[in-house]
Specification:
Chain A is mainly α. Chain A has helices at about 10, 45-75, 80-85, 85-105, 115-125, 130-140, 170-175, 190-195, 195-205, 210-220; strands at about 145-155, 160-165, 175-185. In chain A, a hairpin with a 4-residue loop joins strand 1 (about 145-155) and strand 2. Chain B has two domains: about 1-60, Fe,Mn superoxide dismutase (SOD) domain (Helix Hairpins, Orthogonal Bundle), CATH 1.10.287.990; about 70-175, minor pseudopilin epsh fold (3-Layer(bab) Sandwich), CATH 3.55.40.20. Chain B is built from nine helices and three strands, in the order H-H-H-H-H-E-E-H-E-H-H-H. In chain B, helix 1 packs antiparallel against helix 3. The chains are: A mainly alpha, B alpha+beta. Chain A: Pfam families: Sod_Fe_C, Sod_Fe_N.
Chain lengths: ~220, ~180
């Protein structure tokens, strides 16, 4: 299994250019752990569907959309270029968001962060408990499909919590650098937690990979 | 069905009542800021209550097949054939990004049937003016336990339980 090294979200998903200027396709990243590794907090069934079906579909549809976009661009068909934007945001955002999410979770996760990240959380939210409560509340309050995020506001040099709809990517739509995302689409929890999103949100704190979140934070501050 | 009705729809009802209570208080105090701040909750829970109330009547264990009479004629006139209409509503419902609904609605201004998609619990009439006749819930909670990620399988199955009598009643009521 690949272990994903943390790097800024803006660099993660750029396919490399080949010698002819053609781009390589996006690919589904491997999970850094087995599907069942996050139990009992997140079931293996959910993880398998979520990764191999939902995320895989975003990757495939992103590639298809980018191909159509290249054709439209080559023809100077700006109408089509614009018409493809929702599919680009949806599938591109879906790929970005889930790629971050798998690294934000770990079978050895949970507890609290340490060091600089913990200090920043205390500074910007008062305490870890207050931060945890706020991110949980924001995630619970998403109407419909979306994500709760801990992000970094580069302009103001501070941590910030935000919610996004559907697969809108945090950085692309708000400018905040994504550090920790919580998927609250029903597919992320329904098979195990049914309609009780708050139970899922309670459980997920047991598997947060603070090492990864810290790496992302440290990368922002450069 | 049990979770959808007794948990999801029930939550919309409870939260709609709570929101309306807060709205009345704000209105009484002349607190327009709060009135406006309550709008999303009103649309979400109000829409959720409206949509699901229609949905339960759109389905029936004796459902399926095709409509008859005036509704079928209108479908042929506005979509070409029943098959084309069915394909279109299925495609629109499959294509909803995130949570939402596919709808067959009636456009009163133009006197014709129209297919539309709405996001989240946005109510069809409140947001587009179309009169709702038949709705298909494509929130994941509507199908995930049975169909998992395969929304198209759910969309195939649901045509077996469409209550055309109810859809026809709604259509005839529009045309008055």
């Amino acid at each position: 299994m690949l272990c994903r090294a943390a790097c800024s979200a803006s660099r993660e998903l750029v396919p490399a250019l080949g010698t002819l200027g053609s781009r390589r396709k996006h690919t589904l990243p491997d999970l850094p752990y087995d599907y069942g590794a996050l139990e009992p907090h997140l079931s293996g069934q959910i993880m398998q569907l979520h990764h191999s079906k939902h995320h895989a579909a975003y990757v495939n549809n992103l590639n298809a959309t980018e191909e159509k976009y290249q054709e439209a661009l080559a023809k100077g068909d700006v109408t089509t270029q614009v018409a493809l934007q929702p599919a680009l945001k949806f599938n591109g955002g879906g790929h970005i968001n889930h790629s971050i999410f798998w690294t934000n979770l770990s079978p050895n996760g949970g507890g609290e962060p340490k060091g600089e990240l913990l200090e920043a959380i205390k500074r910007d939210f008062g305490s870890f408990a207050t931060f945890k409560e706020k991110l949980t509340t924001v995630s619970a309050g998403v109407q419909g499909s979306g994500w709760g995020w801990l992000g970094f506001n580069k302009e103001q040099g501070r941590l910030q919590i935000a919610a996004c709809s559907n697969q809108d990517p945090l950085q692309g739509t708000t400018g905040l650098i994504p550090l920790l995302g919580i998927d609250v689409w029903e597919h992320a929890y329904y098979l195990q937690y049914k309609n009780v999103r708050p139970d899922y949100l309670k459980a997920i704190w047991n598997i947060i990979n603070w090492q990864n979140v810290t790496e992302r934070y440290m990368a922002c501050k450069k | 069905m049990q979770l959808h009705h007794s948990k999801h729809h029930a939550a919309y009802v409870n939260n709609l009542n709570a929101t309306e209570e807060k709205y009345q208080e704000a209105l009484a105090k002349g607190d327009v800021t709060t009135q406006v701040a309550l709008q999303p909750a009103l649309k979400f829970n109000g829409g959720g209550h409206i949509n699901h109330s229609i949905f339960w009547t759109n389905l029936s264990p004796n459902g399926g097949g095709e409509p008859k009479g005036e509704l079928l004629e209108a479908i042929k006139r506005d979509f070409g054939s029943f098959a084309t209409f069915k394909e279109k509503l299925t495609t629109v419902s499959a294509g909803v990004q995130g949570s939402g609904w596919g709808w067959l609605g009636f456009n009163k201004e133009q006197g014709r049937l129209q297919i539309a998609a709405c996001s989240n619990q946005d109510p069809l009439q409140g947001t587009t003016g179309l009169i709702p006749l038949l709705g298909i819930d494509v929130w994941e909670h509507a199908y995930y336990l049975q169909y998992k990620n395969v929304r198209p399988d759910y969309l195939k199955a649901i045509w077996n339980i469409i209550n055309w009598q109810n859809v026809t009643e709604r259509y005839m009521a529009c045309k008055k």
